Amino acid sequence: MSAAMSTTDNSFDGKRVFLTGADGFIGSHLAEALVRSGAKVTALALYNSFGTRGWLDETAEDVRAEMHIELGDVRDGAQMRSFAEGSDIIFHLAALIAIPYSYVAAASCVDVNIHGTLNMLEAARAGTAGRFIHTSTSEVYGSALMRPISEDHPLHGQSPYAASKIGADQMVEAFARSHGIPAVTLRPFNTFGPRQSERAIIPTAIRQMLDPACEEVRLGDLSTTRDFTFVGDTVRAFIALGAAEDAEFGTVYNAGTGVETEIGAVINMLNDLTGNNKKIIAESARLRPENSEVRALVADATRLTALSGWRPETDLKGGLDHCVDWWRERIATGRQRRDTDFAR
Question: Could you tell me if residue 342 is inside a domain?
Answer without folding.
Answer: no
